Amino acid sequence: MKYSWATTVVASSSLLATAVSAASADDWTKRSVYQVVTDRFALGNGSSPSCDTSQKKYCGGNWQGIINHLDYIQDMGFDAIWISPVVENVQGTTTEGEAYHGYWPQNINSLNTNFGSADDLKSLSSALHDKGMHLMVDVVVNHVVANPTNTSSVWPETFDYSLLQPFGAANSFHTQCFISDYNNQTDVEQCWLGDSGLPLLDLDTENSTVVDTMYSWIKNLVSDYDIDGLRVDTAKHIRQDFWPDFASNAGVYTVAEILIGNVTYAAPYTKGLDSVLDYPTYYAVYNAFTNGTSGNMSTIAEMVNQAQDQYNHGTFYVGSFVENQDNPRIQSTVSDQAIVKNMMTWPFINDGIPILYYGQEQGYQGGNDPANREALWLSGFNTENKPLVTHVKTLNAARKQAISANSSFLTTKASFISQSSSTSTLAISKPPFLTLLTNVGSGSSSSASWSIPSSAGLYSGKETLVDVLTCDTVTTEDDGSLSVSASGGLPKVLMPAEALSKSGSLCGSQASGAMGLRGLNVGMMGAAVGAILAGMMLV
Ligand SMILES: *[C@@H]1O[C@H](CO)[C@@H](O)[C@H](O)[C@H]1NC(C)=O
Ligand SMILES: *[C@@H]1O[C@H](CO)[C@@H](O)[C@H](O)[C@H]1NC(C)=O
Ligand SMILES: *[C@@H]1O[C@H](CO)[C@@H](O)[C@H](O)[C@H]1NC(C)=O
Ligand SMILES: *[C@@H]1O[C@H](CO)[C@@H](O)[C@H](O)[C@H]1NC(C)=O
Ligand SMILES: *[C@@H]1O[C@H](CO)[C@@H](O)[C@H](O)[C@H]1NC(C)=O
Ligand SMILES: *[C@@H]1O[C@H](CO)[C@@H](O)[C@H](O)[C@H]1NC(C)=O
Ligand SMILES: *[C@@H]1O[C@H](CO)[C@@H](O)[C@H](O)[C@H]1NC(C)=O
Ligand SMILES: *[C@@H]1O[C@H](CO)[C@@H](O)[C@H](O)[C@H]1NC(C)=O
């Protein structure tokens, strides 16, 4: 691969010209997202109380706490956060504990005062924007929640509807029934989540008054708090044709939770909303890496190919993750740090928008909900001697460098280079990345290697590639082919030395890219100056 400076300069200037719509999906593709459970990230007054996740109670985290620790997030290279739902939730306790996670809205026109005031939320939004970061807010549209008021067996259950604002009456809801058949989409959309102890009252999103209420609510929420993106909870529980107008009222990037490992099922939602959280690939990644070497890495490629084919905009707008608030942390299943590092690498090197769930960088190990919602303040926000903090920092830096080194990075599909001899390795090409993953782990008897044939057409002969996770280099053969062995089961993220900048923090001493391209992309140099420089460099 010969590095084409002139092409990069031209593309950079057109990128500058189009980068006007701040909170569009295209803008989000350049970013990476740090997901926080607001109640569990930080207290605004800096105190550090104990937090027993099994109690399912508020532990005290709030918006001011996030504001106070934005440097912690930004220093790892993230330029967006996703926070818990912000509206007022069911008060006190329920059969499932307190609403500390925010997913049980009660009054959608008020904020959850456990997290702060309207001014606090506005301050969080502006503190983020001052740092060039984006705010993604989680929103629940499918249901609202009140404790049932019937004291004996009554069906349907009874509620104090006056609590459920602005709805206030039974005729705003579907008739009570619990979802019993997930293969019947009407049942999924019109029956209720939860159980008789804690029923989630299912809004009648076939009723135009309810629909209009939700559309104007989202429009106002986004504008009142200057929100840049929305994570849309339980989206598959509302009819698909509800979503396009919801998205246009929101006017910002929307990513839907479609909790299913089936690409064909998820695909239609990428038309009404910008995209989906990439659950199908998440499940493939989780199973491939947590079953020892009997995990089949090729299933990841198969799933990604399906998603690239079937989703609107391919997988460029998906949210790509390996942990979240609803799934067990990877270290609850695997402790081998080589496997952990392979899994953590995935979201940063594929087509989607990387999302990291708070605490992963600190090595948190909580299993299923509620164990996976640990208090981050108990880590002391310590970043010294934290190998996974370093790993995340490097992955964010690598992705930023890839974006600035190749203007096609964000719009070219990742592809897989067949590793015919093994189901324990995966080679993913997304120039300038060539990422090599393996599930063999760090055991002394395990080994893995990858082969990239010259027919893949990726490299020229005797080209120097740098593994940006270690700064070790490898050199291609005369014909451009490459053979690499894993060391200790660790992943490799290879970039051409020419795609790195000597002045950059990412393996600068291995770089052969003379000036670094970042200056061009951040607009410090006009295209004309760039073209002159490019001419000089070609001499
Ligand atoms: C940039 O990416 C495109 C698409 O993957 C690839 O064809 C091209 O070779 C890359 N260019 C450089 C200079 O890396
Ligand atoms: C800090 O805030 C928490 C939650 O609001 C409160 O319970 C605690 O008393 C406060 N601590 C101090 C030292 O102010
Ligand atoms: C209300 O009635 C339902 C149906 O009989 C029952 O399952 C539920 O436990 C009751 N709820 C309360 C709070 O008593
Ligand atoms: C639709 O919902 C509104 C309140 O949100 C209610 O007043 C109206 O009766 C409902 N319509 C039907 C047909 O249920
Ligand atoms: C699907 O679910 C709806 C709502 O529960 C129900 O009315 C309908 O009978 C179900 N259809 C089938 C084929 O079971
Ligand atoms: C996946 O979803 C599609 C569309 O809903 C459905 O037709 C198909 O049967 C599902 N596949 C599996 C394996 O469940
Ligand atoms: C192993 O993979 C299978 C699917 O192939 C999955 O059902 C199982 O949960 C995986 N085991 C672990 C520990 O994740
Ligand atoms: C691994 O997965 C791929 C893609 O699903 C499949 O074609 C292949 O047969 C699987 N190999 C094994 C050994 O299970």
UniProtKB/TrEMBL annotation:
Ca(2+) 1 binds at N142, E189, D202, H237. It is an enzyme of class 3 (hydrolase). Keywords: Calcium, Carbohydrate metabolism, Disulfide bond, Glycoprotein, Glycosidase, Hydrolase, Metal-binding, Signal. Its cofactor is Ca(2+). Ca(2+) 2 binds at D233, E257. GO terms for biological process: carbohydrate catabolic process. Residues 35-399 form the Glycosyl hydrolase family 13 catalytic domain. It catalyses: Endohydrolysis of (1->4)-alpha-D-glucosidic linkages in polysaccharides containing three or more (1->4)-alpha-linked D-glucose units. InterPro entries: A-amylase-like, A_amylase_C_dom, Alpha_amylase, GH, GH13_cat_dom, Glyco_hydro_b. One of its GO terms (molecular function) is calcium ion binding. Its EC number is 3.2.1.1. The record marks D326 as: Transition state stabilizer. Belongs to the glycosyl hydrolase 13 family. PANTHER family: ALPHA-AMYLASE 1, ALPHA-AMYLASE FAMILY MEMBER. This is Alpha-amylase. It comes from Lentinula raphanica. The lineage of its organism: Eukaryota, Fungi, Dikarya, Basidiomycota, Agaricomycotina.
